[in-house]
Amino acid sequence: MADYTIKLLKKEEIADETMAFHWEMPDDFSFKAGQFGDFTLIEPSETDEEGNTRAFSFVKGPSENELVTATRMRDSAYKRVLGNLEPGNEVKLDAPHGNFTLHKTESTPAVFVIGGIGITPVRSMIAEALHKQTDHPITLFYSNKTPDNAPFLSELEEMAQKHDHFTLIPVMTGDDIGEWSGETGHIDEAMLKRHVTDVANPIYYLSGPSDMVQDMYELLEDAGANEDNIRMEEFSGY
């Protein structure tokens, strides 16, 4: 781990109320897919009791050689200042952190059960595994209210079309989802077992809002998953 001062290269809206930030990559920086960094604003124009630092996962895999974060833009002092940053503005980065990374045994399936912006570390892990052509069977349940609310959905759909090892199951929970033909409603045991034949076998990765992560943990336990094979990354206050 180390501290860096890095510049913003560009920012873009990638889903409803969701922004991606592209940062300068420090020369000597390395990280594992799934890890995150602490981003601290420098002399922000406003602050609040939550402080000037937030943890953001790296969206891209190491082999993609880009430093990108993404977040829902809520009405907090930190997010207002972050959203108003312009290319060339600097922040402090303390990274890398975290052990929410893909397991090494390629014969053991990986099943991701993800809500919303919890996709950020998972997109990194899946992209890196596909780039390295590992043999992990990967299944991603990806829950959002609507397709417009789902960061990186089209990119993940393209990955799934190109790679036989990767199965994408997008799930929409909202009422206004248009002509959606995929899974709808909340992920439950019946949905899980439609797509995962041997529930006890995979290693599971849960990422998203804290309440959803806890609910999915209980669902997996009830469905027969091995609790030692459930890994979690909770996104609180994003």
Defining traits:
single chain; 238 residues; alpha/beta; Elongation Factor Tu (Ef-tu), domain 3; Rossmann fold; six-stranded parallel β-sheet; 5 helices; globular; Ferredoxin--NADP reductase; OxRdtase_FAD/NAD-bd
Q: How would the blueprint of this fold be written?
A:
Elements: E1 2-15, E2 18-23, E3 36-41, E4 53-57, E5 67-72, H1 77-84, E6 90-97, E7 110-115, H2 119-131, E8 138-144, H3 153-162, E9 166-172, E10 183-184, H4 189-195, E11 203-209, H5 210-223, E12 230-235
Parallel strand pairs: 7-8, 7-11, 8-9, 9-10, 11-12
Antiparallel strand pairs: 1-2, 1-6, 2-5, 3-4, 3-6
Protein name: Ferredoxin--NADP reductase
Organism: Lentibacillus halophilus
Domain FAD-binding FR-type: 1-103
Mean pLDDT: 96
In angstroms, what is the radius of gyration? 18 Å
Shape: globular
DSSP summary: helix tally: 5
What do we call the CATH homologous superfamily of the largest domain?
Answer: Nucleotide-binding domain of ferredoxin-NADP reductase (FNR) module
Protein name: Ferredoxin--NADP reductase
Pfam families: NAD_binding_1 (PF00175)
Domain FAD-binding FR-type: 1-103
What would a concise description of this structure say?
It contains five helices and twelve strands. It has 238 residues and is an alpha/beta fold. Helix 5 (210-223) links the parallel strand 11 and strand 12.
